[in-house]
């Protein structure tokens, strides 16, 4: 019974994920695209929970839906009407080629999965109850992966400074305006 | 294992990655290109979490969190570039931004 519930939840979340992903790339108004991406991220968080990655799911909601997407929406609101993005397209062969390349990536991986080479994905490892819990993640971050943790913080600091510098008004613009 | 196996996770990750690739190639607005990049990064996160569950090792989830931080950094720089474009009255079109070419 519980098994069926897990399957139903998983399939609903996966369909929501794919549907909102298609919505993101097909809206002409970037504001709607950003809103669809929030739905996509929430559905992904549900998938993470079902894969017993509780901390990653919580971080996904907090970092993406909470922080990154709010910044996106602010910038889109700042740009106003200039942000509208009609399907300008380009040559017909480019559009066709992009669809073909996107479909080719999907088909290649799906075929590899359906044939299930070597049967390597058939049996999962047994996991303990604390798998993916915040305590476990925090312990690993402060012991085995301390260097990655520190480098990540430096990357974020550099990106924050870079974002401010890029958006600053420059000397040349002051002269032209 | 209760519920879907690892290959289902990887299949959804592949579909999401394909959608993101199509968006990056097809759309001309840098905003939508950034959103499509987010979809691609999240697809990789989904594959990482699925395989971490498969092998019973939390290292994949640690890597997924690092990917999340890098995605946040990428969005900050990308949005800064877009705001700089608008300040200079350049059109918001990735094909028109030829001055960024190396």
List the helices and strands and how they pair.
The complex is a heterodimer of chains A (177) and B (102).
Chain A: H1 2-26, H2 30-50, H3 54-79, H4 92-115, H5 134-142, H6 146-167, H7 171-176
Helix pairs in contact in A: 1-2, 2-3
Chain B: H1 6-26, H2 30-55, H3 59-87
Describe this structure as you would to a colleague.
The complex is a heterodimer of chains A (177) and B (102). Chain A is mainly α. Chain A has a domain at 1-85: NADH-ubiquinone/plastoquinone oxidoreductase chain 6, subunit NuoJ (Four Helix Bundle (Hemerythrin (Met), subunit A), Up-down Bundle). Chain A is built from seven helices and no strands. Chain A is globular. Chain A starts with a helix and ends with a helix. Chain B is mainly α and 102 residues long. Chain B has one domain (6-97): Helix Hairpins (Orthogonal Bundle), CATH 1.10.287.3510. The longest helix of chain B is centred in the C-terminal third of the chain and has 29 residues, at 59-87. At the A-B interface, helix 1, helix 2, helix 3, helix 4 and helix 5 of A face helix 1, helix 2 and helix 3 of B.
Can you give me a brief rundown of this structure?
The complex is a heterodimer of chains A (177) and B (102). By secondary structure, chain A is mainly alpha-helical. Helix content of chain A is 75%, strand content 0%.
């Amino acid at each position: 019974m519980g098994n069926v519930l897990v399957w139903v939840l998983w399939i609903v979340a996966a369909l929501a994920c794919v549907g909102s992903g298609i919505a993101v790339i097909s809206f002409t108004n970037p504001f709607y695209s950003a809103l669809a991406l929030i739905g996509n991220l929430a559905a992904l968080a549900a998938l993470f929970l079902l894969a017993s990655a509780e901390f990653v799911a919580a971080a996904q909601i907090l970092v993406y839906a909470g922080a990154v997407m709010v910044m996106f929406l602010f910038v889109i609101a700042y740009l106003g009407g200039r942000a509208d993005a009609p399907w300008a397209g380009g040559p017909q062969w480019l559009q066709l080629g992009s669809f073909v390349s996107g479909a080719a990536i999907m088909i290649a991986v799906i075929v590899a999965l359906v044939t299930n080479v070597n049967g390597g994905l058939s049996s999962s490892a047994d996991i303990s109850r604390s798998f993916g819990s915040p305590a476990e993640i925090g312990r690993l971050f402060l012991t085995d992966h301390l260097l990655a943790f520190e480098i990540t913080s430096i990357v974020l600091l550099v990106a924050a400074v870079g974002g401010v510098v890029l958006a600053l008004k420059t000397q040349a613009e002051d002269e032209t305006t | 294992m209760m519920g879907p196996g690892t290959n289902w996770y990887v299949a959804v990750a592949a579909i999401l990655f394909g959608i993101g690739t199509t968006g990056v190639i097809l759309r001309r607005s840098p905003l939508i290109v950034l959103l499509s990049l987010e979809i691609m990064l999240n697809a990789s996160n989904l594959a990482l979490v699925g395989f971490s569950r498969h092998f019973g090792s939390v290292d994949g989830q640690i890597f997924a969190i690092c990917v999340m931080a890098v995605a946040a950094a990428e969005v900050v720089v990308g949005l800064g570039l877009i705001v700089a474009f608008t300040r200079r009255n350049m059109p918001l079109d990735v094909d028109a931004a030829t001055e960024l070419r190396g």
